[in-house]
Structures are given as structure tokens and as C-alpha cells.
Amino acid sequence: MRTPDPVFKLMNMKKTAIMQPYIFPYLGYFQLIHAVDTFVFYDDVNFIKGGWINRNRILLNGRDFFLTVPCRQISPYKLINETEFDNQRPEFKKLNKTLEQAYKKAPYYEPVAEIIESILNTNTNLISELAECSIRTIVEYLDISVEFKKSSVDFPFTKEAVKADRIIAICNALNSQHYINPIGGQELYDKAYFNQHDIQLNFIKSQPQEYTQFNNTFVPGLSIIDVMMFNDKETIKTMLDQYELI
């Protein structure tokens, strides 16, 4: 269960997270959003080929399956917010059909399919904006209270800083004293370095959670789409609190 540090609570530190926009990310991404006051879409950094920006995993025929939004001219030398997706490709046009094939018999298929269709019909050709829309729409659905920012729009003056220094610069611009990062960032960011800049650094660690996926052996770590297909809103909101800060 989420247990905020009483010192942080007493000092009322403003909490910030900064992440690349991912398309329909996994539950842990939304736990991170839920844990902070301000969430910054890190959209003016290099596109990660083979990462999670334009794809995520769903459950299809009892196994994990990559649901991918096809992009034009993917390159690690292009920024995320410069990368376009192609909604005329057969792969894109089949996305709704693939989701129907995967989840038609799931208990919450109808309302969730409607949400996803509205996202895929977003009037944009940029993968950053489509991914951001997928996150914002689901955050609204789950009643998560958070302020969203974009690094390209709100913090372009930090662009010259790199790695931890840019994170620190964005936190300073927000008057935020507490930065929360996914657990995978433990090898990237040093708590002592952040402390030198008067910022508390913590890593969010999701607690294992299982739910019924038809009659299959549970497949963990799938897209939030899978979570929404099998769980009602109140159950998911409870799941959002199942993490610890380390």
C-alpha cells in the first residue's frame, strides 16, 4: 500500500515526474502519474527505436502481443515530437479489429473499446501527441488529479542541459523539491547528486498485482488496455496505490 513519507507530507514537497510519452503504457506509468503533482511529457528527446513510444503489449490468444502504431522514418536521431505515425497503413487500420479479436469477451470491452477508438481518431500525425492523448484520456477516466507539462513547450530553456542536470533544471523551474523516477532509473540517477541540488530523489516500485485474464495463466506488465478490459474503474484506482517509494 502507498505509504507517503511523513517528512515529505509535513514539508508539503511538490512532487514531479518526467517521462517520454508512451502509447497506452502499463499500469506502473499511471502509478507514477498518480504519485506526483506535476507530470512532464519528455517529448523533445531522441526517439527510442524498439522502445515503448509507439507500441505496447496486449493479451491475444492467451499470450502477449505487440500492438504497434506504425511510424514514418523512425530514427534515434529524430526527436519524439518530430516523429510522425502513419494512419493509412494497414497495421494502423487493423488496431481496433485486433483489440476486438483480443478482448471482445472481456467484461469491460464495450466502454474501453469506445475510449480507445476516440484516442486513435485524434486529429494529429505526431506519435508524441497520440501517445500523450492516450495517457491524458485514461488519466481523466481514472480521475487522477495531476498537472501536465511538456518539456518542448514549457521548458525549452533546459534543452542544453543533459541527463540528470536537465531533470534538476526542470524541477527547479517548477519549484519542485521531490523528483520521482521509475525503478529502472536507479542506474541512471544518483540520490546524492540530487541532494546536492536540494532535490529528494525516489524511485517508484510497483507491487505485484494479478487479476483474472479470461481463464489464462496471468501475463504481467501488459498495457493499461488489458487492465481496463478486465477491471472496473474503482478496482483500477485501488491498484494505483499499490507501490512503494525507495
Salient structural properties:
single chain, 246 residues, six-stranded mixed sheet, 16% strand, 8 strands, two-stranded antiparallel ribbon, alpha/beta
Description:
- The chain has 246 residues and is an alpha/beta fold.
- It has one domain.
- Helices cover 36% and strands 16% of the residues.
- The chain contains eleven helices and eight strands.
- The chain has helices at residues 6-11, 27-34, 90-93, 95-103, 109-120, 127-141, 151-154, 164-173, 191-196, 224-230, 233-239, and strands at 15-19, 38-41, 55-60, 63-68, 147-150, 178-182, 200-206, 243-245.
- It has a six-stranded mixed sheet with strand order 5-2-1-6-7-8, with helices on both faces.
- The radius of gyration is 18 Å and the shape is globular.
- Residues 1-10 have low confidence and may be disordered.
Structural class determined from secondary elements: alpha/beta
Number of helices: 11
Overall radius of gyration: 18 Å
Helix content: 25-40%
